[in-house]
Every structure is written in structure tokens, then in C-alpha cells.
Design a protein that fits this description.
By secondary structure, the protein is an alpha+beta fold. The chain has a single domain, classed as TATA-Binding Protein. It has helices at 28-39, 125-136, and strands at residues 17-23, 44-45, 50-52, 57-59, 61-66, 71-77, 79-87, 97-105, 115-120, 143-147. The strands form three sheets. The chain has a six-stranded antiparallel beta sheet with strand order 2-5-6-9-1-10, covered by helices on one side. Strands 3-4 form a two-stranded antiparallel sheet. It has a two-stranded antiparallel sheet with strand order 7-8. It is globular. The mean pLDDT is 87.
């Protein structure tokens, strides 16, 4: 019996997108509102959050599909904080339970980034720069910059579907 082997190129893995890191202290819905206002888009909160780390962490996600230009915009938080109750190993008269806050990051190599704006689709460099400049003009934001997706170690975390 003959063995047939199919080899798929890496072209299926590489989707075309741009990624912008956003540093700010705003809540997710407020940032989505400001991006909608300044960029002329319509980000809406998805019904379910983005699950990661086998249900240990969930990240808020806002999305908009521009059907005219065939572009999908996604705003996702990078930080997830969860509280766990840790019981002490020893018994005492005053048993107390400590609350421990654990912090998870969607992209661990960018721990200081609060949010990511992922734009899936073909964008010219000029359009990408104008989007970044429009984001930088929002006074409530500290900074924003583009990230080279080729340098990401955990790019699989950016697959939202």
C-alpha cells in the first residue's frame, strides 16, 4: 500500500494583520469608545471574552468587521487579573484565608502593554501610520506604537476565531 504524504506550506499560518500596542489606564469600554470616535470605526463588545490558559484567564475583546474594505478590527486587553483564595498549610486558632491576585498576559513578551489593536487585512504603510498617529492624538492615552508580528513569540494567542 502506497503512503501519500501531504506537505502544507506555512502560508496558511501567516495571516496578514497589523498590531498596535496601546498604553493607557482606561477601562476597556472607554478606550473602545475613544477609538470609535477618533478612527471612525464601530467596535462592539463580543458576547464572550477571549479564553486563554485553559480557562484560567479571560480577556475582554471588542470587534468590528468593515465589510466595505474587508478588514476586521479587534481591540483586546493584554492583562487579566484573577483572585484566588489560598489556605494556609498549618492549623491555628485563627485560620485565615489569604487572597492572592494572579496576573496573566495575553502576550507575555509585552507585559507593560494594556491593550492591543489588531487589524486583519491589507493596509498600506501610509494607512497604518495614519491610524497610529490618530491613536496618538487621543489625549487620554500614554502612548501607542506598531509591533512587528514577525518578532512575536506567542502569536498563536492572537487567533481570536
Amino acid at each position: 500500500m502506497a503512503v501519500h504524504k501531504l506537505i502544507l506550506d506555512d502560508t496558511f499560518d501567516d495571516s496578514v494583520y497589523t498590531l498596535t500596542a496601546i498604553h493607557c489606564g482606561l477601562e476597556d469600554f472607554r478606550l473602545a469608545y475613544l477609538l470609535n470616535k477618533h478612527l471612525g470605526i464601530c467596535l462592539c463588545r463580543k458576547a464572550s471574552d477571549l479564553d486563554a490558559k485553559n480557562g484560567q484567564a479571560s480577556y475582554s475583546i471588542f470587534e468590528w468587521e468593515d465589510e466595505k474594505q474587508l478588514i476586521t478590527w479587534s481591540l483586546v486587553s493584554n492583562i487579566c487579573k484573577t483572585e484566588e483564595i489560598q489556605e494556609s498549610d498549618y492549623k491555628s486558632l485563627f485560620d485565615n484565608q489569604e487572597k492572592i491576585t494572579k496576573t496573566f498576559h495575553l502576550l507575555p513578551e509585552f507585559k507593560t502593554v494594556n491593550y492591543f489593536l489588531k487589524i486583519e487585512g491589507e493596509l498600506s504603510i501610509k494607512k497604518e501610520r495614519s491610524i497610529t498617529e490618530a491613536i496618538l492624538n487621543i489625549p487620554q492615552l500614554a502612548t501607542a506604537y506598531s509591533i512587528d508580528s514577525g518578532q512575536l513569540k506567542s502569536k498563536d494567542n492572537l487567533i481570536f476565531n
